C-alpha cells in the first residue's frame, strides 16, 4: 500500500547537498547588509570588521581539519580547490624542473578530480587511474606498486560521494610520502562527518566544500601544508589575495557561513554520527524485512554513518523514483545526474550495468527525522513492488 503523502518532500540526498543550518544562516545575514565591508579594505573600520570575520572563520575551518589557519586558502568550493591543488602542484613542479610526471588517482574519484588529472596529459604528465576492490577501498599495496615509478602526486578522496566508503587516508598518504610524492585528498564528503587530522596524516593538499556540511553553496577551502612547505601555481591572475593562490575579493558572508558550519560540526559531529547511524540501521532493517534480496554496495565498516548505496533486486532506480515522487533520493553523483550511463563508481566496484541501473543512493543527515525514515522505507517498498521488473 502506498504510504500517506508527507507534508513536505522527504529529503534523503544529503551527499548531493545539505540544508543550510539556520544557525549558519543567522551568522551570515549581517555580512550581507550591515557589515558589508570589503575584507581587503582593512584600513577602515568596516573593512577591518569583515577581515576579522573572515579570519575567525578561517580558524574554525582549520580547527575542524586539524590544520593551522595559515594553511587554509578560501575558494568557491571543492571543484575549484581540487583543480588548484592538482593542476597547481603539477605545473609548479614542472616549472621548477622536477622531472616527475606521473599523477596517480582512483577510478572512483569525483569527476572534477578525474578530469583535472586527465587534462594534465596534454601538458606532458602521465595520468594513472588505479582500480578499487569490490568494497570500494583501494588496496594500499596497489598504490605502493604504482609508486614504483617516480610519482609527482597522488589524489585520493577521503569519503566517496556515491557509496560513503571511507578510504584509509593516513595509510595512503604515508605510502605516498615514502615514495617522495605529494598527497592530495578531496574532503568534500568527509568534512564534518568523520574526525580529520591533516597535520598528523601527512596530507599535503586537501579540498573542502561548504554545502556538504550544512553551510552555504559557493564557498570552500583548500588546505596547503606549510611545513614542509607545499608550492603550487595559481590557476588565474589577479590581486594576489589568499597568498597569491586564489585572487579575487573574498565572499565574506559565505566564508562566515562555512566557518560557522565547521564550528558546529566540531561541537556536534560525534553525537550527530550516533543518531544518524541509528536512523540508517532502522532504514536498512525496514527495507530488508520487506525486500530480503536488497544489496548494500561498498564496505559497511569503512563508511560514513549517513550513507546507504542500495541495489534493489528487480525494479530500476528510475522507476522507483518515479513511483515515490515525494522522496528525494538519487542514482549517484549529483554532478553526473544528467547522464544516462550507469554510475562509473559502481562499475569500478564490479557492478554490472543492469545492477547499477537498479541502485539508489540514500543520504541521511542532520535534519532527517525518525518519521522521515519510516516514510522513506514505506515509500521505497511500495515503489519497488509497483515498478515492473527490468527486462
Task: Note down, in words, how this protein is organized.
The chain is α/β, with parallel strands linked by helices. The chain has two domains: 10-20 and 268-386, Aspartate Aminotransferase, domain 1, CATH 3.90.1150; 22-264, 3-Layer(aba) Sandwich (Aspartate Aminotransferase, domain 2). Helix content is 38%, strand content 13%. The chain has twelve helices and twelve strands. The strands form three sheets. Strands 2-8-7-6-5-3-4 form a seven-stranded mixed beta sheet, with helices on both faces. A three-stranded antiparallel beta sheet has the order 9-10-12. β5, α6 and β6 (182-186) form a beta-alpha-beta unit. α1 (22-28) packs antiparallel against α8 and α3 (78-95) runs parallel beside α4. The longest helix has 39 residues, at 252-290.
Compose a concise summary of this entry.
With 391 residues, the protein is α/β, with parallel strands linked by helices.
| Cα-atom radius of gyration | 21 Å
Q: Which stretches of 5+ consecutive residues score pLDDT under 50? A: none
From the spread of the alpha carbons, the general shape counts as globular
What class, by secondary structure content? alpha/beta
Q: Strand share of the residues?
A: 5-15%
Q: Which H/E pattern describes the elements? A: EHHEHEHEHEHEHEEHEEHEHHEH
The domain count comes to 2
Q: What is the CATH homologous superfamily assignment of the largest domain?
A: Type I PLP-dependent aspartate aminotransferase-like (Major domain)
Count of strand segments: 12
| Largest sheet: number of strands, sense, barrel closure | 7 strands, mixed
- Trace the largest sheet across and list its strands: 2-8-7-6-5-3-4
State the CATH architecture of the largest domain: 3-Layer(aba) Sandwich
User: Termini distance?
Assistant: 24 Å
Calculate the mean pLDDT score and round it.
95
Amino acid at each position: 500500500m502506498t504510504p500517506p503523502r508527507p507534508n513536505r518532500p522527504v529529503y534523503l540526498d544529503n551527499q548531493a547537498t545539505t540544508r543550510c543550518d539556520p544557525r549558519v544562516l543567522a551568522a551570515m545575514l549581517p555580512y550581507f547588509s550591515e557589515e558589508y565591508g570589503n575584507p581587503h579594505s582593512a584600513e577602515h573600520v568596516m573593512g577591518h570588521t569583515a577581515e576579522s570575520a573572515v579570519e575567525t572563520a578561517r580558524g574554525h575551518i582549520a580547527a575542524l581539519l586539524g590544520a593551522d589557519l595559515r594553511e587554509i586558502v578560501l575558494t568557491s568550493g571543492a571543484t575549484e580547490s581540487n583543480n588548484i591543488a592538482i593542476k597547481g602542484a603539477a605545473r609548479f613542479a614542472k616549472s621548477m624542473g622536477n622531472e616527475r610526471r606521473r599523477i596517480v588517482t582512483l577510478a572512483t574519484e569525483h569527476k572534477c578530480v578525474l578530469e583535472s588529472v586527465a587534462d594534465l596529459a596534454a601538458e606532458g604528465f602521465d595520468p594513472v587511474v588505479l582500480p578499487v576492490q569490490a568494497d570500494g577501498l583501494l588496496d594500499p599495496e596497489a598504490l605502493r606498486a604504482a609508486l614504483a615509478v617516480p610519482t609527482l602526486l597522488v589524489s585520493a578522496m577521503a569519503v566517496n560521494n556515491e557509496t560513503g566508503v571511507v578510504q584509509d587516508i593516513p595509510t595512503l598518504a604515508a605510502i605516498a610520502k615514502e615514495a617522495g610524492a605529494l598527497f592530495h585528498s578531496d574532503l568534500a564528503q568527509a568534512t564534518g562527518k568523520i574526525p580529520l587530522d591533516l597535520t598528523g596524516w601527512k596530507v599535503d593538499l586537501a579540498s573542502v566544500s561548504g554545502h556538504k556540511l550544512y553551510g552555504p553553496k559557493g564557498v570552500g577551502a583548500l588546505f596547503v601544508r606549510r611545513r614542509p612547505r607545499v608550492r603550487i601555481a595559481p590557476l588565474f591572475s589577479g590581486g594576489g589575495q589568499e597568498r597569491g593562490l586564489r585572487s579575487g575579493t573574498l565572499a565574506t558572508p559565505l566564508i562566515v557561513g562555512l566557518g560557522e558550519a565547521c564550528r558546529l560540526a566540531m561541537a556536534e559531529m560525534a553525537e550527530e554520527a550516533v543518531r544518524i547511524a541509528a536512523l540508517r540501521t532502522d532504514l536498512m532493517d525496514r527495507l530488508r524485512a520487506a525486500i530480503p534480496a536488497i544489496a548494500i554496495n561498498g564496505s559497511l565498516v569503512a563508511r560514513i554513518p549517513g550513507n546507504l548505496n542500495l541495489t534493489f533486486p528487480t525494479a530500476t532506480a528510475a522507476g522507483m523514483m518515479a513511483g515515490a515522487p515525494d522522496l528525494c533520493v538519487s542514482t549517484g553523483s549529483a554532478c553526473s545526474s544528467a547522464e544516462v550511463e550507469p554510475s562509473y563508481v559502481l562499475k569500478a566496484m564490479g557492478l554490472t550495468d543492469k545492477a547499477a541501473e537498479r541502485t539508489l543512493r540514500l543520504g541521511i543527515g542532520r535534519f532527517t527525522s525518525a518519521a522521515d525514515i519510516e516514510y522513506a522505507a514505506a515509500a521505497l517498498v511500495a515503489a519497488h513492488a509497483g515498478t515492473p521488473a527490468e527486462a
